[in-house]
Amino acid sequence: MRRALLIVGGILGSFGILALGLHFLIDKDSVRPLVSSQLSEALNRPVSFEAFDFSLLPPSVTVSKLTIGEDPAFSKRPFLEAPELQVRVALLPLIQKRVEIQSLRVVEPAVRFVKNAAGEWNVSTLGRKSQGGGTSEVSLESLRLERAKLHVNGFDAPAMTFDLRETRISGPRVQGTLALLDIDPRSDLRFDVTSNGPVDVLLTAGASRLTVKGTYGDRQDLAIEMPATPIRDLAKLASLFGVAFAPGYQVSGQVAISARMQGPNTKGTARIGDLEVKGGDLKQPVRIPQIVVNFTPDALRSDPFEAIAGPTRLNGFFSLANYSGKSPRLEATLVADDSRLEDLLAMARTYRVAALEGWTGEGRARLRVRLHGPPAKLEYQGTAHLENARLATAAISKPVEVATLDARFEARSARVEKFRLRLGSSTAEGEAQVTSFDPPRAQVGLRIDQLDSAELAAIFKSSSPPLRLTNITTQATYAGQRLVLAPLNADLYGGKHRGEITVRLDGPAPAYEIRSQLERIESSQLLTAVTPALRQVIAGPLTAQLNLDLGSSSGADLARALNGQIKLNFSQGRLLNFNLLDELATLAKFLRINPQAERATSFLALTGDLQIKDGVASTENLKLDLDKASTTLTGTLGFSDQKLNLKLNTVLTRAYSDEIGGTRIGGYLSSAVANPRGELILPTLVTGTFAQPRFAPDAGAIAKLKMQNVLQPGAVKDNVRGVIDLFKKRPARPQP
After folding, report:
1. Which of 655, 641, 626, 635 is nearest to 698 (CA)?
2. Residues ≥6 apart with Cβ < 8 Å to 694
3. Which residues on adjacent β-strands are paired with residue 257?
4. Nearest-CA neighbor of 521 among 568, 589, 563, 581?
5. Which is nearest to 164 in space by CA: 182, 189, 184, 147?
6. How far apart are the C-alpha atoms of 15 and 182, rounded to whole Å?
7. Distance from CA of residue 483 to its chain's centroid?
8. How many CA within 13 A on the CB side of residue 566?
9. Residues 622, 624, 630, 633: what is their CA dihedral angle, to the nearest 10 degrees?
10. Residue 323 confidence (pLDDT)
11. Does residue 560 sit in helix, strand or coil?
């Protein structure tokens, strides 16, 4: 036992001495430039990094913020960028001041594969330059790219982890084995590819096996073979790249491919049998018993096929001409007679029809459509019919109920010849013309029984003034994220609305442009809906011209977003929070004849213009007509903060002035002035709020009016007499 311990101790001591010796032989600061230069030479690319850490046992290097430059012939952007790189190197060469890389582990790299105009890929120039000017071999036992993001000539693949083994890059030839570790079952790709030369590729994914053999480049001749194998594994692989079936669905069936690519031409056949998609949000499977696609040099064409979902049958076929050229053209026909809408939508979701993504529904449907043209600019011909249907999507909180809808597709437009639908408490009918699907442009003729804008905003998960309109007729146009309702005619709070409304949808929230004529609208109800804080301000039939812009909000926020002009024309209304003549009686100290019990001012007319900016209205010509007085108002009214800053100039009629005492009223000298016609004028300041206005004499205006009276012809004599009277000797007061 003692002997064994001595042997073990000797071995450990030897390792310790060796480690100590290596520590003196290998300097960390000398390793960093070696790694940088050796990587640059090995890859034939500039290599840079920031932090550097070296570990002796085992010999390894860890660097952060790695950048591998690109061949200038391909791009100005880096070939690879990564936050971390781990390099395992051989020990003996390191002692000899050389770096021999055994394996690389790159964490979260972004790698760009670029093809130039000549058809060459940037990886073809990776590798150390030889004396002849070409590139010599770069060999790695292992290259692991964890959570790599690949950018392949304009296509961005999702983040995946790749494990490359026995990778060898020798000039234009790349060999190795790549494993994709993000899917189950694991997929492996064995490749031996030469740019403009031989190709030998084998892809395995579970039980699936795809081989590609031949030559690639100027004389392309590739044979592609895949015997009948389960499609589920290939579907999982394809879903990583955003094609084929959506994730979350279970796919079964078999696929077989036999094709040959010679130059730009392809000949062969792809067969899919017993295809079934289920799971996800599908209530029942979607099946295609068989679909056969034939490849020819001119086009790929499918045989007629049938898609089945419950009792619904969708028949069709398609062809893609010039598929390898710059201008491919698609021809397809889809026919579904007396089908269930929910089944057709299930098929659309299964095969990722983007325009119907997220929609669900139920009801009866018929569809006969032919599609043709370039895939990016398809044209449509055919008809569609919905009956007793319901359509729902997460974007709205209530379904759209479609009693009937008949549509006809023509080129890149569609005409809805008649429809009748219900959303919330509103029922609409009319016709529509969709002039473009992308970008969307449409014109709609609408007749709506009633519309509650607050309810509609809640359904569309937005906000809007809670207006309630009935008997609506309008022509709606949608284009460029603008919805224009012009003309828009409706009954509104006992009166009529005529004009147009534009809803701008290009911002974070809808905004509105209102150009309208209101005819005898009950003002208290309108204010309650639009600005609830002002609901107890005024009542009466309002006639007005509106030219307003407002954002989408409610209460004070909506009022603050208000801008534009209003031309008012009230008749037979009431100001609700004060009685003007009572307030003036208090200021001027005259006897109020038949004082009113309620705090309200009944008026015969209220006319004038309001200029509104950020919720504050200003006026220079507002006029209030009472039965015994008339008042002009100038100043500002805050719709958002409800503050008042007004100057009132009230002229009492001659009869009323005499009735309350004329120039004998108590506040005549300080609050009122008589004009030459014997009418009392009461200049007043109004501050406070709509709910609690405060009245005070306007001393400046009173002084100005008195000065004007002094300068009136015929008034000089009376004023001089008044001055002389001041200097007359007054009788002595009697002694007590």
Report:
1. 635
2. 686, 687, 688
3. 226, 270
4. 568
5. 189
6. 41
7. 16
8. 22
9. -30
10. 80
11. helix
Neighbouring CB atoms inside 10 A of 692's CB total: 11
In angstroms, how far is CA 525 from the centroid of its own chain? 34
What's the CA gap between 517 and 142, in Å, rounded? 77
Please say if the pLDDT value at position 23 is more than 50: no
Q: How many other CB atoms are found less than 10 A from the CB of residue 426?
A: 17
Residue given tokens 């009323």 in the structure block:
656
Return the SS3 of 291: strand
Phi-psi region of 65 (alpha: psi -120 to 50; beta: other; left: phi over 0): left
Closest C-alpha to 416, from 403, 439, 434: 434
Residue type, 272: I
The answer to whether the beta carbons of residues 26 and 94 sit under 8 Å apart is yes
Residues 561 and 317: their CA atoms lie apart, in Å, by 55
Asked if residue 577 lies in contact with residue 693, where contact means CB atoms within 8 angstroms, the answer is yes
CA distances from 247 to 240, 278, 342, 350, 645 (A): 8, 11, 20, 10, 64
Helix, strand, coil shares of the chain, percent, nearest 5, are 20, 55, 25
Half-sphere exposure of residue 451: CA atoms within 13 angstroms, side-chain side: 21
* Tokens representing residue 539 in the block: 């009542």
Smallest CA-to-CA distance from 647 within 574, 601, 698, 714 is with 698
Q: Give me 485's structure tokens.
A: 């309702």
Taking the CA atoms of 682, 687, 690 and 694 in sequence, report the sign of the dihedral they define: negative
For the stretch 415-448, pLDDT in tens is 998 899 999 999 999 999 988 877 888 999 999 9
CA distance 580 to 648: 10
SS3 20: helix
Whether 293 and 302 have beta carbons less than 8 Å apart is answered as yes
The pair of three-digit structure tokens given for residue 455, joined into one six-digit string: 């309810």
The pLDDT tens digits of the residues spanning 312-353 come to 999 999 999 988 778 889 999 999 998 999 988 888 877 666
Return d(Cα 81, Cα 67) in angstroms, integer.
5
Nearest to 501 by CA among 460, 469, 535: 469
Tokens 């405060």 identify what position? 694
Phi, psi of 36 (to 5 degrees): -60, -50
Q: Which amino acid does the sequence have at 495?
A: G
DSSP 176-224: EEEEE-SSSS-EEEEEEEETTEEEEEEEEETTEEEEEEEEESTT-EEEE
- Token pair listed for 274: 């017993």
Cβ–Cβ < 8 Å for 230, 250: no
